[in-house]
Amino acid sequence: MIEVNELSRTYGDKTAVDQLSFTVRPGQVTGFLGPNGAGKTTTMRMILGLETPTGGTATVSGVPFRSHPRGLRHAGALLDAGHVHGGRSAEAHLAALARSNGIGRRRVAEVLEEVGLAEAGRRRIGGFSLGMKQRLGIAAALLGDPPVLMFDEPVNGMDPEGVLWARRLFRRLAAEGRTVFLSSHLMSEMEQTADQLVVIGRGRMIAAESVRSFAARGDHRSSVLVGTPQAAELTVLLTAAGATVEPEGSAGAERLVVTGTAADRIGALALEHRIVLHELSTRSASLEEAFMELTADSVEYQSGRTR
Predict the structure, then answer these.
(1) Strand partners, 28
(2) Contact 228/278 with Cβ under 8 angstroms?
(3) pLDDT band, very low/low/confident/very high, at 307 (cuts 50, 70, 90)
(4) What is the three-state SS of the chain?
(5) Which of 8, 29, 3, 21 is nearest to 180 (CA)?
(6) Phi, psi of 57 (to 5 degrees)
(7) Terminus of the chain with fewer CB atoms < 10 Å: N or C?
(8) How confident is the model over 19-42, as a mean pLDDT?
(9) Average of per-residue pLDDT across 294-306
(10) CA distances from 29 to 121, 190, 204 (A)
């Protein structure tokens, strides 16, 4: 496990991480969310011993990561795909990491094959696209076949095929019983990949719970989308039954967004009053909506309003 207890980091008078405590458990993908400047990367760096905490502790498998003599066998990480020597080949980069961690050369070929870079192994990294560098960083994280894996924005720069590949990889690694800790700004991707969430803002804890529980915390409740040529009649019936009904889209549209009443109840009312339905589907609360709402007070860099 990754265990963080009262972890803090200050830089002069600025507090980047403020007494964070959470646990990342094996067998599931834990997403790490927060606005820009929330302290996510600083937290990951402290877990890996790359930053010294001002207070608190962070351990990997029960001890500080620096205590592990051959780190890549215990935890693999991708924090910045650009932190590689552009003049080296992918093979040379991974071979150096392997030698320093007592890992056989055969493993280099295996991870290059796994991330789809087998044919590019002898090319210089300086000529790689960002997506290829991300794949190389993931290969480096996998090199020691570790039980703990950490990825900071790993799909930035990847094409749709690469994003799908990465999602399946993270899910498979968790299914193998590994601890997978994943930071991303892509809410739709996190919704499909993560089981649990750790959400922070301005260095402080906002939530540590399942994706479903967090999404349900927002004011945006589940709704039902109804398509009908008899929208006016159905609106009257649903309003009388205590539901809130709003048209979706432009005026005169035949689609309604209904909250406060379940889809089966809407279907029963429509049948009873001989109202034709073309569509009846439940829309669950959105992770993105909940995230935007619950972190609104923690956004450090506010954009100007769009006019």
Answers:
(1) 179
(2) yes
(3) very low
(4) CEEEEEEEEEECCEEEEEEEEEEECCCEEEEEECCCCCCHHHHHHHHCCCCCCCEEEEEECCECHHHCCCHHHCEEEECCCCCCCCCCEHHHHHHHHHHHCCCCCHHHHHHHHHCCCHHHCCCEHHHCCHHHHHHHHHHHHHCCCCCEEEEECCCCCCCHHHHHHHHHHHHHHHHCCCEEEEECCCHHHHHHHCCEEEEEECCEEEEEEEHHHHHHCCCCCCEEEEECCCHHHHHHHHHHCCCEEEECCCCCCCEEEEECCCHHHHHHHHHHCCCCCCEEEEECCCHHHHHHHHCHHHCCCCCCCCC
(5) 29
(6) -135, 160
(7) C
(8) 94
(9) 61
(10) 29, 9, 21
Whether the predicted pLDDT of 250 surpasses 80: no
- Alpha-carbon distance 24 to 59, whole Å? 11
How far is 47 from 68, CA to CA, in rounded Å?
A: 12
- Please tell me the predicted confidence (pLDDT) of residue 248: 82
Residues constituting the chain: 307
The confidence score (pLDDT) of residue 288 equals 75
Position 283 pLDDT exceeds 60 = yes
Between CA 150 and CA 2 the distance in angstroms is 10
The pTM assigned to this predicted structure is 0.79
**Are residues 45 and 33 in contact, defined by beta-carbon separation less than 8 angstroms?**
no
Q: Which domains does the chain have, with CATH numbers?
A: 2-216 (3.40.50.300), 223-283 (3.30.70.100)
CB-based contact 121:112 (threshold 8 Å): yes
- pLDDT the model gives residue 23: 97
pLDDT on residue 11: 94
* Residue 128: per-residue pLDDT: 95
The per-residue pLDDT for 212 is: 84
Copy the structure tokens of residue 206: 């906002």
Average pLDDT (203-220) is 82
Give 306: exposed, middle or buried? Use CB within 10 Å, 0-12, 13-18, 19+. exposed
